[in-house]
Specification:
With 434 residues, this protein is mainly alpha-helical. The protein has a single domain, classed as Up-down Bundle (Growth Hormone, Chain: A). Helices cover 75% and strands 2% of the residues. The chain has 16 helices and two strands. The chain has a two-stranded antiparallel sheet. A hairpin with a 2-residue loop joins β1 and β2. It starts with 10 loop residues before the first helix and ends in a 12-residue tail after the last helix. The N terminus and C terminus are likely disordered.
Length: 434
């Protein structure tokens, strides 16, 4: 098989990138949204298991990306550097997705809760190995500074399309066929696309050669947490702090959003699909020009505007009840959050050390996934249990989420403006004009 020239993107690689990105993002979007409603609808209405599942999944994703990302940086095989992890990882990711809903057969609630947390974590391990660690590092490997923007465009387009599929198709399919058929179909698609994409993926020259001399694996892994790593990448860590706080704010409410809309507002899954589809389409239309503006003008100013509008949108979202107003406020909340995220992640990737991209993408996971998804849902669960509406579902006691989760989450998101302001003290090649 012919290898791609170093840091160049062929038509085949563009096609593979889009297919793997889209499929992976659909799987993550479903996991972030419908796994939570699955637990509420089929196991227990208690919000704590959702918080536990989200937290366990986040920690698993982060540790997996750190370890497997570092390992893939060091790997050289006849199949290439990243391909083995992508090919096998996607296949096992799909299989674990197919098996996930079987936990509903367990009739002992406590055991079912334990097993659903384990099942989600296993699925997350394979997904993070394939997508977060190997695939994302591969997209950095094959891109240059001249193509980085287009690569980010493809990756973020896949996010938008995946969210549309997860919001529009998923709710309707679950209403029509139930959770089991839906998860079976999703898992089969992940297996098929992962298998074909892994086979046709091309890696840069050198992916089969012996790696340059590097320290032992665990020493290199431990170096991620050294003071020197922080000092040498100070700007990167300040930006990660911004991402962490803004993500915590989003995670206070996001895991419970569909449960809130169904059980507090009275929106059906199909109606939510319509609202979600409109919000995602609008988000794409707003986020792309927003990202272009961030490239041309001051990144931190554009990001700050996005954070402020998103937070206001989240607060308004908690106050309205009609479908049109939910869609409009949801658009402000999500679109400008996504737009700020696009600009900040593109900025972050420009700061990644060239020889350690895989492991530094793992560091990003600590601030972007692990900490926010442990702290945010825990805050949301506490708010729901403290202020939510008591309910019974299939003999189980629980609480219906209430608007305060969106209001508190939005206020926390606004706190991310503090580390964003600190970036003014740092100068980098990629920094915009001040």
């Amino acid at each position: 098989m012919q290898e791609t020239p170093p840091n160049q993107l062929t038509k085949r690689n563009w096609a593979v990138m889009f297919a793997l990105a889209l499929t992976g993002q659909i799987a993550w979007a479903v996991e972030n949204s419908w796994f939570n409603t699955f637990v509420f609808d089929t196991i227990t209405p208690d919000p704590r298991p959702i918080a536990w599942m989200v937290a366990a999944s986040a920690v698993t994703a982060t540790l997996t990306t750190l370890i497997m990302g570092t390992l893939s940086d060091r790997t050289r095989t006849r199949w290439g550097k990243r391909r083995p992890y992508i090919l096998l990882g996607y296949i096992l990711w799909g299989l674990s997705t197919i098996l996930f809903p079987t936990v509903a057969y367990i009739k002992i609630t406590l055991l079912a809760v334990v097993m659903v947390v384990i099942a989600d974590s296993v699925m997350t391990f394979f997904g993070s190995t394939a997508n977060d660690a190997a695939f994302n590092a591969w997209t950095v490997d094959v891109a240059t500074s001249e193509t980085r923007g287009r690569v980010e465009g493809v990756l973020n387009l896949s996010v938008f399309l995946a969210q549309i599929v997860a919001m529009v198709a998923a709710g309707m399919l679950i209403d029509a066929f139930g959770y089991f058929i839906f998860f079976y179909a999703l898992g089969a698609i992940v297996i098929l696309v992962g298998f074909l994409g892994g086979l046709f993926l091309q890696e840069p020259d050198g992916s089969q050669e012996e790696p340059v001399s590097r320290p032992p694996f665990w020493k290199e892994f431990a170096d991620l947490f050294s003071i020197n790593t922080f000092k040498e990448n100070r700007m990167l860590f300040i930006l990660l702090l911004f991402i962490m706080i803004s993500s915590i704010g989003m995670q206070v409410s996001f895991p419970y959003m569909i449960v809130y809309l169904e059980n507090f507002v009275g929106v059906t899954k199909t109606e939510f699909s319509i609202i979600g589809g409109a919000v995602m389409l609008g988000s794409g239309a707003l986020a792309i020009p927003f990202g272009i503006a961030a490239d041309r003008w001051r990144k931190r100013l554009i990001i700050a505007i996005g954070i402020i509008i998103s937070s206001l949108g989240g607060i308004v979202f908690s106050m309205v009840r009609s479908l049109p107003l939910l869609a409009l406020s949801g658009l402000l909340w999500q679109a400008f959050s996504v737009a700020a995220g696009i600009a900040s992640v593109a900025w972050l990737k420009d700061l990644l050390p060239e020889e350690s991209r895989g492991k530094f993408l793992g560091i990003r996971m600590i601030f972007w996934i692990a900490i926010p998804m442990v702290i945010g849902p825990a805050i949301g669960s506490w708010l729901i249990r403290s202020y939510g509406i008591p309910t019974h579902l299939a003999g189980q006691e629980g609480f219906i989420p209430v608007p305060i989760i969106f209001q508190v989450g939005s206020l926390i998101t606004l706190l991310s403006l503090i580390p964003l302001a600190l970036t003014r003290k740092q100068k980098t090649v990629q920094d915009e004009r001040d």
